[in-house]
Structures are given as structure tokens and as C-alpha cells.
Write a structure and sequence with these properties.
Strand content: 15-25%
Largest sheet: 6 strands, parallel
Structural class: alpha/beta
Bound molecules: alpha-L-arabinofuranose
Radius of gyration: 23 Å
Length: 335
């Protein structure tokens, strides 16, 4: 018998969930799936099967996000997590989602590598009665009924916070900025760029070059090497994540300049490596992007399966750090 819960039976399921969890508490020793041989155990039917398609393993942020999801969606917490890594390719994510539909999982969750091109596969999930939850990155679709909820950060605000800081530093003089963009077509790349540009509009900051570094350290370094060869007057790097900023540090040092002094650097994420570079004075400012989305995902998945109303958009709060704040935060930093 499948553990695929349909929304129509959600109220029934909610009642069964309470009863089943009581049974589960008192039947730890009982053999699973045994008994009369006709059905599954209460503990097994209580489990929510969730198929998660992750973007990839491109950054420290992504590693922390994956850990949060895997640490939270455990058997003990009532989940059977099916996890796949799309290696930053949309076609791999579409394939994974189709496979979850075929397996009739209870919930599909994914962090879309790019914003567009999801309607067809999401319609397939909807037709199969499988609810979808978006984490971290949003999709650009006119049909909001294709997903239940989005959980993640406000990327436009992150870009604006970075731009506001840049403006404060350089107001009154003409300064040259280079931008290391995230993956082309990804929500955080589009939104952080837009937020930064709107914050610096009308100021003396000028973006003289902008290219994707695909959110990776290696590509961030390569792109920064190119920028340094083309421009000898760079004042500031705006990197859409810590990893690309860390790659830029390597390129700047290799070019004989001092990161954080000769060329200032702003990044987004606030993972440990980035925060250490900020504490060391090699990065000048970091806007946080909180990767610990596992608990919210578990909560929303349980509610969706139980047929409860959920918020369409759950925005995670992000902070920003300068050198002193990074030094203070580092000892307790979870990721
Ligand atoms: O979608 C969140 C972004 O993806 C993070 O800022 C970046 O590090 C990651 O690769």
C-alpha cells in the first residue's frame, strides 16, 4: 500500500497521524510491516515520503543548506527523504521531479536552479496530486497554484543591503565596481543584481564590468583574473556569494594587490569561510543569506500533507556583518 497522501483525504490523515504517532510511541519493539501480512505498520504509514531535488554542491552555502535538510528530514522526525543533487543542471532537476512523481512521493520540494521553465513539470505534479514546496529559490510562473509555498530569503533586499553599504563607503567620489554574478537565470543572481543596482542608482558608483562566476570559487577566481587584466582601476568587487568573493581574493593577491584594502569586497551568504575572510580584513562587508531551511521545510511539509493552510511565502530574516560583527559571530557560527 502506498503512503501517498492525497489532499482530499488530508483531514482523515491528520486524525490518523495523531493516532498513529501514539501507536508509534508505544510500538518501538514491534516488527515493521509484519502482523497479518496484509498491510504496513502504523509507523510506516505515518512517514512522509519527501522527494527533494537540490541545486548542486556549488558553494559552502549549498553544503550548509543540504546538511540542514538532511539533518531535519529524518526518520525520527517522521520523514523518508529521497534526495538528489542536480549538479546545477535544470534538466537533472526536471528528471528528478518526474521520478518523484512516478514514485508517488507525498511531497516534492526543490530549489530551482533557474527561475523559468518549470510550468510543464509542475503541472505534471499537480495532475498527480503531489504538493510542491519551493525552498531557497523561487520560480517565475504566472500560475501560483503550481506550488504550495516558497521558503527562503529576500534576494532583492540582500542586493539592496550590499548596495547601501557600498554607497555609504564611496559617496561623493567616482568609484569603479565589478560584479561577480551568480548562475545566469537563477533567482538570487537576478534579484541581487537588481537590488544592488537600485540601491546605487544616482550615486557615484559605476559597475564597469559584470559576469557570471556561477556561484563557485573556481569560476569566481577565473572571472576576477579576467577583470584584473582588463581594468586597472577597480575599487570594489560585488560578489553574489562568499565563494566567488573568496575566489576573487585569490586572484587579487596573485595580481599583487591587497584584497580588502586596494580593492574592497562585498559578498552575500556569511558562511564560515567568508566570515573568516571578513574577520581577517580580506572581505569588507557580508550580507547574510540563511541556509538553515530544513526546520521550516519540515513544518510546511507536515502541514501540507495534513491539508492545513500554509503561507504562500515564508521569508527568512538575514543580517549583515562588518569586520567587528564577524569576529563576534564566528565562535558560534553554525555554518
Ligand atoms: O540560492 C542561494 C545561493 O546559492 C547562495 O547565495 C549561493 O552561495 C548558492 O550557491
Amino acid at each position: 500500500m502506498s503512503t501517498h497522501f492525497r489532499r482530499a483525504g488530508a483531514a482523515l490523515f491528520a486524525a490518523a497521524l495523531t493516532a498513529a504517532s501514539l501507536v508509534a510511541c508505544s510500538s518501538e519493539q514491534a516488527p515493521q510491516g509484519g502482523g497479518d501480512g496484509g498491510g504496513e505498520s502504523a509507523a510506516a504509514s505515518d512517514t512522509i515520503v519527501l522527494g527533494f531535488s537540490q541545486v548542486g554542491a556549488e558553494s559552502g552555502w549549498r553544503a550548509a543548506n543540504t546538511k540542514s535538510i538532511q539533518d531535519t528530514l529524518t526518520q525520527e522526525n517522521g520523514f523518508d527523504l529521497k534526495f538528489s543533487d542536480a549538479q546545477q543542471k535544470q534538466e537533472n532537476q526536471i528528471q528528478a521531479i518526474r521520478s518523484y512523481i512516478q514514485q508517488q512521493v507525498d511531497v516534492i520540494a526543490f530549489s530551482p536552479v533557474v527561475e523559468t521553465g518549470w510550468d510543464a513539470v509542475l503541472e505534471e505534479a499537480k495532475a498527480a496530486g503531489i504538493p510542491v514546496i519551493l525552498t531557497d529559490r523561487a520560480v517565475d510562473s504566472e500560475d501560483e497554484s503550481l506550488y504550495e509555498s516558497f521558503i527562503g530569503s529576500d534576494f532583492v533586499l540582500e542586493g539592496e543591503m550590499a548596495g547601501e553599504w557600498a554607497k555609504e563607503q564611496y559617496d561623493g567620489e567616482g568609484y569603479k565596481v565589478v560584479e561577480l554574478q551568480g548562475t545566469t537565470g537563477a533567482a538570487p543572481a537576478i534579484d541581487r543584481k537588481a537590488g544592488f543596482e537600485s540601491a546605487i542608482e544616482g550615486s557615484d558608483l559605476e559597475i564597469i564590468d559584470s559576469q557570471t562566476g556561477n556561484f563557485t570559487r573556481t569560476e569566481g577566481k577565473q572571472v576576477m583574473e579576467g577583470f584584473l587584466q582588463k581594468h586597472d582601476d577597480i575599487d570594489l568587487v560585488f560578489a553574489h556569494n562568499d565563494d566567488m568573493g573568496l575566489g576573487a581574493i585569490e586572484a587579487i593577491e596573485a595580481a599583487g594587490k591587497v584584497p580588502g584594502k586596494d580593492i574592497k569586497i562585498i559578498t552575500i551568504d556569511a558562511v564560515k569561510d567568508g566570515m573568516q575572510a571578513l574577520a581577517d580584513g580580506k572581505i569588507n562587508y557580508i550580507v547574510e543569506c540563511n541556509p538553515l531551511l530544513g526546520p521550516d521545510l519540515a513544518d510546511i511539509a507536515k502541514k501540507v500533507v495534513a491539508g492545513e493552510e500554509v503561507q504562500k511565502r515564508i521569508v527568512v530574516k538575514d543580517e549583515a556583518f562588518d569586520q567587528e560583527a564577524a569576529k563576534a559571530a564566528l565562535p558560534d557560527r553554525q555554518y
